[in-house]
Design goal:
Helix content: 40-55%
Strand content: 5-15%
Order of helices and strands: HHEEHHHH
Structural class: mainly alpha
Largest sheet: 2 strands, antiparallel
Strand order of the largest sheet: 1-2
Number of strands: 2
Length: 116
Amino acid sequence: MRYFRHWKWGFLLVLGFAFQAYATEHPKIPLLDENGNNVIEMARRNGRKLVLNGVTYFKGAPFSPQQTCSPCHNYKSITSAYHFQIGATVVNDDWGKEHPQYHNKYLTSPGQFGFW
C-alpha cells in the first residue's frame, strides 16, 4: 500500500509538470525578416504562393532569428552559448568524408553546425 501511495504522488507530480509546460507555451509572435518586416504578411501581399497536395505555401524572404527573437531574448548570449557553438571552429565541407566513423558523408562538423 505504501508503494502505491508514492507511485500515485509521483504520477501526479509528473502530470502537474506536463500541464505547466503546456500552459506556459511560447506566445505567438510575428516572424520578421532582416529589415524588421513581417515575413508572412509580405509574402501574402506579394502574392507569390505555391500549392502542393492541397497545402498553400507562401514564398517570401527568409525570417531573421535575430530580428524575431531579440526584442524579448538576449540573442547574443544565446548564440554564443556552448551548445550553440559546438563544431563552429571545424566546419568543413569534407568533414563527414574525412570521419567515416560517423556514417554520414554529408556532415560538415561534429556539432550543431552542419548537422541535420
